[in-house]
Fold this protein.
Amino acid sequence: MAINVDTVYKTVLLILNQQQRGYMTPDEFNKVATQVQLNIFEKYEDDLNQQYRMPQNDTEYANRVKNIEDNLQFFQRTGATAYVGPHFTLTPTDIYRLGTVFYNSTELTQYAQRNEVTQLLLSPLTQPTTDFPIYLYENDTLFVYPTTIQTGITISYLKTPADVVWAYGVGTLGQFEYQAPPASTFFELNVSEQTNVISRILAYAGLIINDPTVIEMAAGEVQKEEQNSKT
């Protein structure tokens, strides 16, 4: 379940207004919320890499590798390609990181660098075949060898998180009135990240309203959350 953008914004405003510390406009919130979501999303890969090197709890809900993978599933996609010779262009426009390349639903396991491709093509023993193709990923395009392969290439990938939007209209008294989706865009993060999201937004809010107390409070919560996720 995604995080409700209206719930987050109203919680942030409530915390800021409790002690009359300031205000965060919808436009400021949207920019900060989008950046916070991207920061959390980018951290998943580092956390996953770290957890793979550590012993895991095999209970149903406490396996950290599984939990991080669950968080990433909101961004996992499959996509098509189009052959425009001598390469394949990637059809999706929201690719953040390329995952697996498939040829007729079979994974291409051999990824080569440009200098390796030249060497592999020159040797009769290592030349790729349709049974054992290789690929080069360069400048957002795929070069698949042998070049007789011109169809059947698909990909898996992580998508770029969509911008967070708390959309609003202006009421008769000049107040901001929330507009539900599709005008607004929810966070694409798991609802389990809601506390983390609010803490990080508050840290940015402290900078915006120039309040060191808010920054310190929010930074402490973020640090506590990160420590808990790694220990």
Remarks:
- The radius of gyration is 23 Å.
- Residues 26-52 form the longest helix (27 residues).
- The mean pLDDT is 87.
